[in-house]
Specification:
By secondary structure, this protein is mainly α. The chain has helices at residues 5-37, 40-45, 58-64, 67-99, 106-118, 123-133, 140-143, 150-161, 165-173, 178-186, 191-207, 210-215, 224-232, 246-286.
Length: 290
């Protein structure tokens, strides 16, 4: 069917707006990338606007030669993978019984979960709790307090409710219990929402630095995001300590900040395209109840 002139004009306007949004979204990333690989002198002069000027990977060389970066990287990878697995398991175990109409505590448990979305204990009580539990300055201080998200429990619960009741009834007629139904029927049919949970929790763990700042004074346990914060906010120059000339220290310390941003952001950004299909589908289905 042929489009009218007004419809074509509307399409052109939509494409133009989307192109503008894409440009303003990608520009900060491209700018930081260009600053990280340009010649240090151009970085200090702030003469790089879009494309790199010159080519220098000295900042990346210093970053990957730093043992603190590799330690922080391994910590971040551990917190992301272990935390994400724990989060998905706990969220699924919490959301499944809440999706069953026969669960007699369903209403009260939902009220309890929703309340936690609006009210929290605060920083000081949480700090005291970590010490009393004996997990202060341990990896458990990062994993346990964020074992499940109330918001994502509700999203997963809503998704589980879309699975036909007939599948549950037929499985129970065959003698399956709730654990068997969850592991053999519900979870295999819930790949979209599991992908959403994986992405949300993984991004949260990868970017999180405040819990580590509060509960992990030991540098050998701190994640990469906290190491990045020390370089960007506190201005630590740990990677240029071997330089005697103050001018060279200034040149490289500024560029190292841009390179650290790329090193920190790039891995988690690279994962998103592989989960995008499930992400869109899971959010649309899990957030709407028919």
């Amino acid at each position: 069917m042929r489009q009218s002139a007004s419809e074509r004009a509307a399409d052109v306007l939509v494409y133009a707006v989307m192109l503008f949004i894409i440009c303003i979204t990608l520009y900060p990333f491209l700018y930081v990338l260009s600053m990280s690989i340009s010649k240090p002198i151009h970085v200090v002069e702030q003469s790089v606007w879009l494309f790199p000027k010159g080519l220098s990977f000295s900042a990346y060389d210093r970053i990957f030669d730093s043992p603190e970066v590799w330690t922080s990287y391994s910590n971040t990878f551990f917190y992301t993978v272990a935390g994400m697995m724990l989060n998905v398991i706990m969220t699924s175990l919490a959301a499944y019984p809440l999706s069953r109409k026969g669960f007699f505590l369903r209403k009260y448990m939902m009220m309890f979960i929703v309340v936690t979305m609006f009210f929290g204990g605060g920083i000081i009580p949480m700090f005291i709790l970590m010490q009393d539990l004996g997990i202060y300055n341990t990896r458990w201080a990062i994993l346990l307090p964020t074992a499940a998200s109330a918001f994502l429990i509700i999203i997963a619960r809503t998704f589980f409710q879309t699975i036909p009741e007939s599948l549950h009834e037929s499985a129970k007629l065959d003698g399956a219990n709730d654990i068997t139904i969850l592991t053999t029927i519900v979870l295999p049919l819930s790949k979209p929402i599991l992908a959403v949970l994986t992405l949300f929790y993984a991004v949260n763990h990868w970017n999180s630095f405040f819990p580590a700042l509060m509960y992990l004074p030991n540098p050998s346990l701190q994640p990469l995001s906290l190491y990045l914060m020390k370089i960007l906010v506190q201005g630590q120059e740990v990677m240029v300590e071997g330089m005697i000339d103050s001018y060279d220290r200034t040149l490289h310390s500024i560029q190292i900040k841009y390179a650290m941003i790329i090193v920190t952001v790039l891995p988690i950004v690279s994962v998103y395209p592989f989960l995008q299909k499930y992400f869109v589908q899971g959010v649309m289905i899990g957030s709407l109840k028919e």
